[in-house]
Amino acid sequence: MSNKRKESAMIVSQECIAADIYSMWIQTEKIASLAVPGQFISMYTKDGSKLLPRPISLCEINREKKLIRVVYRVTGEGTGTEQFSELTKGDWIDILGPLGNGFPLEAAKGKKAMLIGGGIGVPPMLELAKQLDTKKVLVMGYRDEQFLAEEFCEYGDFYVATEDGSAGTKGNVMDAIAANGLDAEVIFACGPAPMLRAIKQYAEEKNIVCYISTEERMACGIGACLACVCQSKEVDGHSHVHNKRVCKDGPVFLSTEVEI
Amino acid sequence: MNTTVNLAGVELKNPVMTASGTFGSGEEYSEFVDLNRLGAVVTKGVANVPWPGNPTPRIAETYGGMMNAIGLQNPGIDVFCERDIPFLKKYDTKIIVNVCGKTTEDYCEVVERLADEPVDLLEINISCPNVKEGGIAFGQNPKAVEDITKEIKKYAKQPVIMKLSPNVTDITETAKAAEAGGADVLSLINTLTGMKIDINRQTFALANKTGGVSGPAVKPIAVRMVYQVANAVKLPIIGMGGISTYEDAIEFILAGATAVSVGTANFFNPAATVEVVEGIEKYMERYHFENIKDMVGLVK
């Protein structure tokens, strides 16, 4: 038996950084020491009517200070994420992690990397940008209001797409890539399914190695319940069908490996 | 204090086991709980061949619970015997294999294949609401329950648990039918068929449209059904449906369950099973129960 367990962790800070987007720093020695970019944690509400964990990706990992940061969207009134947003410094939150596989940093070694984030898929790209020690361009897409933009600028050439045209290229991340003539030898991406589909197609046409972080409704978060599967080209190791588990085998997959 | 319970001649160190489908074959949860502490591990359903399961989304949260339509994704009996049984054999806990199928022959094939495996009991899933064929098609008709139980008993080398569906008018009828067919133990309840609509996308929350509701919200229904069945048949009962704490487990035992299963609670508390084991011991101490058997069906 290993020492994995759900833990109660203290919130060090919480702030609203854009409309409905919150940034929370959490004190947790265990997760901070083990986590890699692209992994996620399960966050639990204190509300007995909302029992299932909310999977939230890690935005930053600070090993020295034993902190992790999550940046998440409040999805509506009365939701679990709204309850998270009401917590403040000194409050405790139940979390489980780190979960999932994370991005393979070694795949970018000596290569020009492109990091693409869309919407609430933007936050996990920040820790990846920090840890990737290679030449990189960062392309982030927003509906309207930007968040984390200044922080990204520290780690590479930063490009923005906004749906309303309020900043950067008007349109989506693919429009920003085309408008700025960007290219790369390896792509890492996280965002909504239509964006990932477009990136998968783009990468396959251009023969670029591409890793995408996928999303699916989860229950256990540890690979037991088989709720969060995605169709895979290869036979999966668990059930020997074509269903990889997003929470355990993913959430990061080689784009050619999965149907999205 | 004696917490051992006997299910058709199989002695469990305590009455706490896992509910099929919520715990895989124990591997994932072995990182959170010591499987040696459990009375038994009940595996996720296994069929004669691999099943891919249903399209996603396969789960949705409901008030105080959840709804699932996984569709019994499983690797098939061959991989299961090579991988999952040897894994569980490393632990000092009883192994209960949940068996699913689309036809009577499918069930019997799996049961026959398990005859020579080091498995302690078989749980026959005739009550899954999420597969079109098999599953619940057998579990809602007393005659069909009796027939399939009889058929399975011809092939089974281990004692047979029939898992009953709550999606019936009178669960004592299917319980009696299973008893008449020769079942050794009954387990109940499987999930309650439900539906959730996503009003923002104007569609069903689950790709399967309907799913099985589980979790704390269904517990009173499950306790009532265990009580009814305990008073209608002579077989031992494994009670389940929303058990998250030892208090929940005690309710089922007092209502007539010899053993209990923890299911959905694993998803929000990976250590729930062992916490229930420890809580039952403390409860017995507090109320001076020397033997857990004295608690079974105490509330008349």
Automatic annotation (TrEMBL), chain A:
Pfam families per UniProt: DHODB_Fe-S_bind, FAD_binding_6
Q: Binding of FAD: at which residues?
A: R54, P55, I56, S57, V71, Y72, R73, G80, T81
Cofactors needed by this protein, per the record, are: [2Fe-2S] cluster; FAD
Q: In which pathway does it act?
A: Pyrimidine metabolism; UMP biosynthesis via de novo pathway; orotate from (S)-dihydroorotate (NAD(+) route): step 1/1
Q: Keywords on this record? A: 2Fe-2S, Electron transport, FAD, Flavoprotein, Iron, Iron-sulfur, Metal-binding, Pyrimidine biosynthesis, Transport
User: What note does UniProt attach to the cofactor annotation?
Assistant: Binds 1 [2Fe-2S] cluster per subunit.
Domain FAD-binding FR-type, which positions? 4-105
**What job does the chain carry out?**
Responsible for channeling the electrons from the oxidation of dihydroorotate from the FMN redox center in the PyrD type B subunit to the ultimate electron acceptor NAD(+).
> How would you summarize the oligomeric state and partners of this protein?
Heterotetramer of 2 PyrK and 2 PyrD type B subunits.
Q: Which family does it belong to?
A: Belongs to the PyrK family.
* Name of the protein in question: Dihydroorotate dehydrogenase B (NAD(+)), electron transfer subunit
Organism, scientific name: Faecalicatena faecalis
Gene expressing this chain: pyrK
From TrEMBL, chain B:
- Protein name (Swiss-Prot/TrEMBL): Dihydroorotate dehydrogenase
Keyword Oxidoreductase carried by entry:
yes
Annotated residues that bind FMN are located at S20, K44, G45, N98, N125, K163, I189, G215, G241, G242, G263, T264
What is the name of the gene encoding this protein? pyrD
Instruction: Return the broad EC class.
Output: oxidoreductase
Which is an annotated GO molecular function term of this record? dihydroorotate dehydrogenase (NAD+) activity
Record-annotated residues binding substrate?
K44, N68, A69, I70, G71, L72, N125, N190, T191
Source species of the chain? Faecalicatena faecalis
Quote the EC number: 1.3.-.-
Q: Which Pfam families match?
A: DHO_dh
Annotated catalytic residues = C128
Database matches in InterPro entries = DHO_dehydrogenase, DHOD_1B, Dihydroorotate_DH_1, Dihydroorotate_DH_1_2, Dihydroorotate_DH_cat, Dihydroorotate_DH_CS, Dihydroorotate_DH_I
Coiled-coil-forming residues are: none
In the record's cofactor note, how is the cofactor described as bound? Answer: Binds 1 FMN per subunit.
The annotated pathway is: Pyrimidine metabolism; UMP biosynthesis via de novo pathway; orotate from (S)-dihydroorotate (NAD(+) route): step 1/1
Free-text function comment from the UniProt entry? Catalyzes the conversion of dihydroorotate to orotate with NAD(+) as electron acceptor.
- List localization entries: Cytoplasm
Dihydroorotate dehydrogenase catalytic domain sequence ranges? 4-284
